[in-house]
Write a structure and sequence with these properties.
0% strand; 79% helix; mainly alpha; 5 helices
Length: 128
C-alpha cells in the first residue's frame, strides 16, 4: 500500500469476501447435492446469482458510494462468484468426455450471467 492510503477499502473487501466465500461454498454444495449429474449446477447457480446482485448494485448506482460498492460489489460478489471454478469444471467435463455438458456449461453460464446482470441492472435502476 502506498503511504497515506487508507486501510478501510481493504478491510471492506475482506469483510465482504468473508461473507461471500462461505455463502458460495454452502450454496454450491446445497444445489449440487440435489443433482445426480456431472454438470456443475452449483457453480452455475452462484455465478448467475452473483451476476444478478452485481447488476442490481450497479443499476442502483451504488458505484457512487465507494464503501458500499467495495464491500458488496468487490468483496461479497467477488468471493461469491467464481470464474476459476467455472473454467476448471468446464475443462474437467471435456477431459471426462462430457463435451456436450462442457459446451452447455459455457453457453448457459455466459448467457445467463450476462442476462442476470442486465435484469439486475434494470431492477436496480428502477428501485433507485
Amino acid at each position: 500500500m502506498t503511504p497515506g492510503a487508507s486501510l478501510a477499502p481493504v478491510l471492506l473487501v475482506l469483510l465482504g469476501g468473508a461473507i461471500g466465500a462461505p455463502t458460495r461454498y454452502l450454496l454450491d454444495r446445497a444445489v449440487q447435492s440435489r443433482h445426480d449429474s456431472a454438470f456443475p449446477w452449483g457453480t452455475l447457480c452462484v455465478n448467475v446469482i452473483g451476476s444478478l446482485i452485481l447488476g442490481v448494485l450497479a443499476g442502483a448506482a451504488t458505484a457512487h458510494d465507494s464503501a458500499l460498492w467495495t464491500l458488496l460489489g468487490t468483496g461479497f460478489c467477488g468471493a461469491l462468484t467464481t470464474f476459476s471454478t467455472f473454467g476448471y469444471e468446464t475443462v474437467r467435463l471435456f477431459e471426462d468426455r462430457a463435451r456436450r455438458y462442457a459446451v452447455v456449461n459455457v453457453v448457459v453460464t455466459v448467457v445467463a450471467g450476462v442476462g442476470a446482470a442486465a435484469v439486475g441492472f434494470t431492477l436496480g435502476h428502477l428501485l433507485a
